[in-house]
Amino acid sequence: MADDRPSPNRQRAAELLRKLRTITVEAGATEAEALTAATKARQTATEHDLSLDEDPIVEVRIPIDRARLRPIDRLWPAIGAFTQVSVILIQAQSLEVVYAGRAADTLLAEWLHALLTRHIARALADFKLRPDYRRRKPNRRRVAAAAFVESMTLTLCTKLCALQSADARAKAAAAERWIADRYQNLSSVRAPTVQDSRVDAARLAGHQAARGVPISPPVTNASVPLLPGSQA
CA–CA separation, 191 vs 104, rounded Å? Predict the structure, then answer.
């Protein structure tokens, strides 16, 4: 009679995965520790080929707190492709980004979403302190800020695409079927673009800001500090 119990290695991997999910900023970890835990969780799930019972298909919903699409909304599909999850943008009274996939992958997607949006917000705040921005009229400032964010977003998308693994689409298939069953008839949406040649300097500044953002493929050997009360 065949033994259907998971192997000890897989049991340990599933337990490690559960512990890694508890390492969050809210629980006392630093941002770097939490992101390392997320990438380690993804590596663990992949190496041990954990089943959906051990690493189930889940969704993470992130509110955007606005109703209209903006250039930054191009970033979410790039995050999804890099982390091997499916992404949809729900348009209601306010926007929501939904990442759906293996728990380990959505954890990484959620952290990249938070990390990259913080980088964009900080870089935009610095850009608004520049004399060439402050000399503009208020309506021109809005266009320049939008062009800065658009350029930074597109550069970040390019960086994520360059790091995307070759088998990412295959691993996202289960998540895509899950999304299709849950949401069914979906329509495509397109983020707006800034059509104004007078803000090329802002675009260049956004591109340069994005080049300085550190994005690395999932770690393979980084040590992950466990929170108090956890055991390796």
Answer: 28
Task: Name the token pair of 72.
Answer: 């930054």
| Token pair 């921005």: residue | 133
pLDDT band at 220; cut points 50, 70, 90: very low
Residue 80 in contact with residue 61, Cβ under 8 Å? no
CA distance linking residue 171 with residue 104, whole number of Å: 12
Q: Which residue has the tokens 């926007």?
A: 95
Tens of pLDDT along 118-132?
A: 899 999 999 999 998
Residue 227 predicted with pLDDT over 60 = no
As beta bridge partners, residue 60 has 99
How many Cβ atoms from other residues are within 10 Å of residue 220's Cβ? Answer: 9
Dist CA 219 CA 68 (whole Å): 36
Residues 6+ apart with CB under 8 A from 187: none
Structure tokens at 161: 């695409």
Please name the residues in contact with 97: beta carbons below 8 A apart, sequence gap of 6 or more. 61, 62, 64, 76, 87, 88, 89, 90, 113
pLDDT 10s digits, 157-204: 998 888 776 666 566 666 666 666 766 655 556 676 777 778 788 889
Query: Which of 175, 157, 202 is CA-nearest to residue 86?
Result: 175
User: What per-residue string of b and e applies to 28-58 under the rule 16 or more CB within 10 Å gives b?
Assistant: ebeeebbbbbbbbbbbbbbebebeeebbebb
Pair type for strands 86-91 and 57-63: unpaired
